[in-house]
Amino acid sequence: MARFVFITGGVVSSLGKGLASAALGALLQARGFTVRLRKLDPYLNVDPGTMSPFEHGEVFVTDDGAETDLDLGHYERFTGVAARRTDSVSSGRIYSNVLEKERRGDYLGKTIQVIPHVTNEIKDFISIGEDEVDFMLCEIGGTVGDIEGLPFFEAIRQFSHDQPRGQCIFMHLTLLPYLAASGELKTKPTQHSVKELQSIGIAPDILVCRSEHPIPQKEREKIALFCNVRKDAVVPAYDLKSIYEAPLAYHREGLDQAVLDAFNISPAPKPNLDRWYDVADRIENPEGEVKIAIVGKYVQLEDAYKSIREALTHGGMANRVKVAVEWVDAELFEREDPSPHLEGFHAILVPGGFGERGTEGKISAARFARERKIPYLGICLGMQMAVIEAARNVAGVATAGSEEFDHEAGKKRFEPVVYHLKEWIQGNHRVERRSDDDKGGTMRLGAYDATLAGGSRVAGIYGGTAIEERHRHRYEVDIKYREKLEDAGLKFSGMSPDGRLPEIVEWADHPWFIGVQFHPELKSKPFAPHPLFADFVRAAVETSRLV
Ligand code: GLN
């Protein structure tokens, strides 16, 4: 049976709870344990699939097709353990399960209440697959005291009592603000936050204290005394230059040791941190720099493209260069020449997105990259835009466009080179979609196989012709246009196994121009950069040498 670590936050949000959880997962792995990380989000949306990336950041997609919180991306990037649908849940999902059971009569006429029905549903979720790993790390979203969070805190309190003694611990993240006027770190907010936790029956075993300044020993002792934790269980968390330094930094501050001590695991297995030393070395000592433009719509909030940003960093690490990313708003050159906005970059990436806004700008970015022979990576919508560009400007389909942007009935503005797919094959099953399905339900979501053309650039990059990548989209490039586009030079070098759905396109006579219908960024890790990103950055390095 797994040991459980429950991770909560207090004082303020955005303290880096997800990162601390992910780093702890990596450290436990380094000591030879198996781990799984889970996120429990108190918001009422059933999943983040329909939440605006402006507000909530990227939607992370799992192999089994769940649309989840971006923290699951951190978990995967730090541990390499592929997240599943059962690793992310929200209040919305919990309540909707409970209400469904109530309607079905599963509760045999009982009055349905937060305790025990909602809390039981949460506890059931926490324990899914508990016998598969040594440690289950469960992060609770939000901060202690949030109204929506209460059932989750109550559920983890009960859960720890249901388990044998010593099977569960609580780790709480807080902030130590610094008062410049008096030159002091203040511990009071942390004390209040722990009091709040204790008032709902949870006594933290470990306190992780975020601070911009070194925490003197005497302050650590004070926190330990007032918050009722052991001295060496007060772990400082300082700002880092790179998130990938977190495992080593937390190790230096004794986080993994404190966790093993809290579980009475002795002697503690020695950690092997070689992977993280190598990662830190590649980040700290780059041998050059490339400039890459991400041409998108959600450029104000970097979290909207979190995994892409990280995958580019990994690509840089593979080539020992720093990747300087600039976010370029596609709307800036919807109607004008993109050159002033795109000149000077060593590569251009057009990411995924939904809706028409900015798409003409993305199409011009693809054209600019094709004509100037600048490396281009188009992801999902970025691939669709590259195909539309090729159709319009090279293959002679002047009004090529996507059905996604043609919603006005009876008024077709575009020839649908990209069309709305309503049925497809997954494994050995036919999947069908109806327009009145739930929003998320109408998408091709999760891992699908693709077959690469032998001798293509992508087959060389992947080092094989069978791949599996994650999807999240409704629209597809129509193979009706394959011949026309291939004659023009845009090769369909990756297809779904049944040959119906284009997965990858590449320009034959271009140094590096690839569009992919899937999201390779979701599977990239600092210690295993995704081959497409590693090679894209390599191509950018080559461009940088030409100038
Ligand atoms: N909007 C496009 C579609 O649904 C692309 C989606 C994406 O880029 N993730 O097909």
UniProtKB/TrEMBL annotation:
The gene is pyrG. Residues 3-265 form the CTP synthase N-terminal domain. Mg(2+) binds at residues 71, 139. It comes from Roseisalinus antarcticus. It catalyses: L-glutamine + H2O = L-glutamate + NH4(+); UTP + L-glutamine + ATP + H2O = CTP + L-glutamate + ADP + phosphate + 2 H(+); UTP + NH4(+) + ATP = CTP + ADP + phosphate + 2 H(+). Homotetramer. It comes from the Bacteria. HAMAP family: PyrG (MF_01227). Its EC number is 6.3.4.2. Pfam families: CTP_synth_N, GATase. UTP binds at residues 13, 186-191, 222. L-glutamine binds at residues 353, 381-384, 404, 474. Keywords: ATP-binding, Glutamine amidotransferase, Ligase, Magnesium, Metal-binding, Nucleotide-binding, Pyrimidine biosynthesis. ATP binds at residues 14-19, 71, 240. The active site is at 380 (nucleophile), 519, 521. Pathway: Pyrimidine metabolism; CTP biosynthesis via de novo pathway; CTP from UDP: step 2/2. Catalyzes the ATP-dependent amination of UTP to CTP with either L-glutamine or ammonia as the source of nitrogen. Regulates intracellular CTP levels through interactions with the four ribonucleotide triphosphates. CTP binds at residues 13, 146-148, 186-191, 222. GO terms for cellular component: cytoophidium; cytosol. CDD domains: CTPS_N, GATase1_CTP_Synthase. This is CTP synthase. Belongs to the CTP synthase family. One of its GO terms (molecular function) is identical protein binding. Residues 1-265 are annotated as: Amidoligase domain. Allosterically activated by GTP, when glutamine is the substrate; GTP has no effect on the reaction when ammonia is the substrate. The allosteric effector GTP functions by stabilizing the protein conformation that binds the tetrahedral intermediate(s) formed during glutamine hydrolysis. Inhibited by the product CTP, via allosteric rather than competitive inhibition.
